[in-house]
Amino acid sequence: MRHLKIIYFFACLLFSLAVSGQKHPGIMITGEQVPALRAGVNRYPLLKRSYREIKAAADAAIAQPVTVPVPKDGGGGVTHEQHKKNYTGILNCGIVYQLTGNKKYADYVKELLLQYAAKYESWPLHPARKNNKESGRIFWQSLNDFVWQVYTIQGYDLVYDAIDPKDREEIEAHLFLPILQFFTGHCAYIFNSIHNHGTWCLAAVGLTGYVLNKPEYVQMALKGSKLDGKSGYWAQLDQLFSPDGYYAEGPYYQRYALFPFLIFAKAIQNHQPRLHVFEYRNKLLAKAINSMLQCTYTNGAIFPLNDAIKDKTSETWELVYGVDIAYSDINNSNDLLDVAQQQGRVIVSDAGLKVAKAVYEKKATPFKYVSEWLSDGADGKAGGLGILRDGPNTDQQCVVLKATTQGMGHGHFDRLNLLYYDNGTEVFSDYGAARFLNIESKGGGGYLPENNSWAKQTVAHNTLVVDRVSDFKGSLEQAQATHPDLVYFNAKPGLQVMSAEEKNAYEGVVLNRVTALITIPELKKPLLLDVFTALSNGEHQYDLPFWYNGQLVDASFQFKAFAGELKPMGDKFGYQHIWLNAAAALNKEAGSITFLNKNRFYTTHFTSENPLTVNFVTTGANDPAMNLTTSRAFMLSRKSSGNATLVSITETHGVTDPVYETVTGAVPAISGVTLINNSEGKKTIVFWVNGKKEYRVTINYNDKNNFINLK
Amino acid sequence: MRHLKIIYFFACLLFSLAVSGQKHPGIMITGEQVPALRAGVNRYPLLKRSYREIKAAADAAIAQPVTVPVPKDGGGGVTHEQHKKNYTGILNCGIVYQLTGNKKYADYVKELLLQYAAKYESWPLHPARKNNKESGRIFWQSLNDFVWQVYTIQGYDLVYDAIDPKDREEIEAHLFLPILQFFTGHCAYIFNSIHNHGTWCLAAVGLTGYVLNKPEYVQMALKGSKLDGKSGYWAQLDQLFSPDGYYAEGPYYQRYALFPFLIFAKAIQNHQPRLHVFEYRNKLLAKAINSMLQCTYTNGAIFPLNDAIKDKTSETWELVYGVDIAYSDINNSNDLLDVAQQQGRVIVSDAGLKVAKAVYEKKATPFKYVSEWLSDGADGKAGGLGILRDGPNTDQQCVVLKATTQGMGHGHFDRLNLLYYDNGTEVFSDYGAARFLNIESKGGGGYLPENNSWAKQTVAHNTLVVDRVSDFKGSLEQAQATHPDLVYFNAKPGLQVMSAEEKNAYEGVVLNRVTALITIPELKKPLLLDVFTALSNGEHQYDLPFWYNGQLVDASFQFKAFAGELKPMGDKFGYQHIWLNAAAALNKEAGSITFLNKNRFYTTHFTSENPLTVNFVTTGANDPAMNLTTSRAFMLSRKSSGNATLVSITETHGVTDPVYETVTGAVPAISGVTLINNSEGKKTIVFWVNGKKEYRVTINYNDKNNFINLK
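^ inputs. structure came back:
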């Protein structure tokens, strides 16, 4: 590995000299493919549809007067949206120019760029900036400026030959060169950071370097400002991804970062094929795309871990790029075409042409979702993300165990968090980020105060909270310093299991979670077994919330919701944002809760060493601006002066059919859940099916050869 | 009209004598159509798919042992669901027997019926009954027994010829005759009622009369126990429907009642065609089906007025029957085929064959949704339901004004209630019923206590509440005695308006609502104008809630949600079930609230004679069993010692695109909403578009020739 890196380092030095005599266009569309692309947009439905969309957008853009406003508004505001419109207009018109040869589209791009060139140098840091360091000049955040340039430079490359040299000189001298200087100068801190903002910045610089034939900027993009390889593209590929292609900030930001990683890779491949960028680090980019797709559920939803906007699916543009480039340039596996079909669009580009052609030729096969452990950390040893799946893509159970590193500033304090999907929908869900993306009236479209006070806190997740305090007391610095560890992972069909351990989140408490999908012949769907243990000598309060989707319909115990008054459950670490609806102290060790979600029943049977209290809670307290959306949880709670084990078995059963007005299987099959042989090294969970058949699941924590067995 | 009735009365007497020499089968499938049907299930996709479903269900049924348990459980319980399974099994096997000629399906029906015949007479009233009067013997409610028989007798008719006469005698003597006696004897009160339970009861009796060739029971079904025409089928058709085909209990129960109305009609048509049942009362049944379909939104959702389960759509079986019978027997309008396509199934029957064939021949045209006033009351003069629509079926605005009669026991206290749909979804919605249909753990699957204490109360609807008391103080008897009145209806494109008046709901207060869809050239979508007036000399508290779907994103005024404690808004008339989240007393007459629903923005601009208080509320207080689902409203409130006018203009604007991460049109175009020329007879509402163009809408309450104008 280290050797490989050194070889790459010298390879870069060597081939950098070969960057010269640029041909335009040379990024997503290359000149030689234009004839095939022109034929393809009339032939292959996916490409045709995608092109039609772009053509319509380009025509809408040129129908409007060229508008380059002085930057003024924050995210979602008028000037913000106008500058966003401009960069998509530039790219769309560039594409349409190549496909039609109609010069009016190139002229529009030229006009816009000349106006920017006339003004850009006079724009200081953005007036709506939050701090100087991260300020852009066109946008309130430099990140948006980087994105602007990644789009714009592609559009410029596409119309390059249609702009006369004098105008090109004007645009390059007064817009692109000042931008390069701003990105590598004022923004050097970000340019050299190992972070998605850094990726966007260096991709903008590198692409611009290629298009303007400025190899020195390409070199900086590849190897950092100092050309020492401690930052830049290769360093980011080394450090931000695990060997499995998992991205340190989590799937939501992986999606976002993939886009500049891939576009820049495509440009490197076109301009410096001998760098073999797609081969780098055992085809890391291919793994990154695959692991990204594996971090989605069958409905396309990206696992909403860390700061994630929840309506993101695999239909986002970033994943359209990912799938198309993966298929065309790295690994033309036909199951990627399944995703492309779901996306319903391709990039109008060389890569998109290949995908659309293959789909047209009916090569698509169902996307291969797998159960796997995605290691985290540059060396793959800093915990990871466990994913278990069962069933066909049309009705899949999927369980996710988050035992990754913190994920930097966008990370949540959710060690050993669990997500559960079934029947095409979320069952145990994650709040994601507290943010209304680009909706200016809501905190300028950025993260809301409740993102810190609620969404990041441990109690907002399906994991254990000790003493009603968040992991690491909510300290990012401390959380970033350590990571959970993989204990065991085995995706053996019928008895899939994963386990991870967290020793640092709480002083004096070691947390372990074992999560399994257990198939038993009496039931159609596997059971979700979840065993959470806290090893400690001290006395602690343990709360394990399950943020469920759906409507509560039954419980094995009596409870009475507070009728005339609601109070927050606490005053800090997120508890101040939860209304306590009901608290039921059970008088026996076992109990169950049934809820109905999308016409299917779910019963969570639970037990512990001592009777639990079940708290029913709803988000919304201490939220003066009503920024929070409504989520509901049942929370298993208890005090313990020694080790504590919280066991649950969630059973999927029955169906309600609103068309036929029938209900079947409303009563769960599992009963008598008991914890026996309970020691630090071994636990046995007993349960009954249909009151007749007894099953015993034994977990041997210290025996990797016999970690779990079912009898 | 009266003459027509008398003629029908004699016609019935006359033709009743002609009921003889039955041929089997003779209800939904008639013997002569069987060859065509057998060919059709292999040819027409809709019929093929529908038959495949029925065949699979029939095969699943006969694979199970014949099970006829002693009745024990309430709705959703084991015996309840088994008896439901049995009647669908009987009907499905009957159909499959006719289509395959395979005697095993007929044998299954015979076995089941012989078992029922062996036991039925020994079953007393159901042990889980709520009261004797409405108890069934197979089910806890006689209603379910009626439904059981409507299905079962059809299945029996289908296999009649395959059962030997001795067994038939057994079944008829010990099952069907005792059932006829039970329905017309113990259940006579229901049999003779003018109510949907009565419809099911008489349809069961009438169908059984035809199949068993017992004309005396057919006569009773048509004309009531006493054969005097004061009850029975004709009386129900006269009294339960308005001349426009609107059903007194509202759309949800219309759907339910249509089913027995139509099946019995089909049997009458087959056995006594000279009764011309489909021509009765100016083709009332056709109007009833059409008005039912007009009481849906473009997503298929049935307007959830009165006690309605909200996931009901036009895909329900009852409407499959409605559409197929309407198309085949009454009015073969090709836009009905559009609905059939959405339903994705047809009845495997003579009628379904015609529909599937026509769909196969590509005759379908988009369903014609119209703006219309559906009168209520047998004479059409007891108020009604106003519906305004604008735009294509793919993106339609739809506004509903409920000014109907109370609708008997399932009616809500929601005089002048408003529903608003747009963009394929609910914008201002109705809670519907508080009920988890057939989910036994929730109140036995029946109506929950909160249906009375919450769902029926005025404040649960989008209408004015006076002094925080429900219409008629929640008295059904008083509410049933009077009705609101139509003031004006005009569906002129560009300026559609409806107005109704309610004089009786509150003593000393006359309520009027004017609701309009106003098209102005600057905006793509019409504005929803709503002017609610309360005329009174006394001092009153007025609350006008808007139960909105989506997430609040902006308001023109400062507000601060209660952070550390929530209290219910009141202690009765539904107010005890709402948590008051925030209360903002405005300091000027006008204000606005913006919310985001399914990627589209809605801004409600409002004004009144004096500054309003805006209350933000959420359901869920005083709900110990957590039976309520979460709904949110903003409520415009004020006190007034004279007349009060609450004006709102709801504007649809902008779009968020989660794929492209763009937001456009987040800022509303309307501003400066003011109420001028405010008198009892005339009001002018002024508003500005884009701050530039002024519009004035004037309502002349007493001038039908110039009721509303826009300048």
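The first helix of chain B runs from residue 2 to 16. Chain B has two domains: 2-273, 372-710.
thumbs up if we can close this ticket
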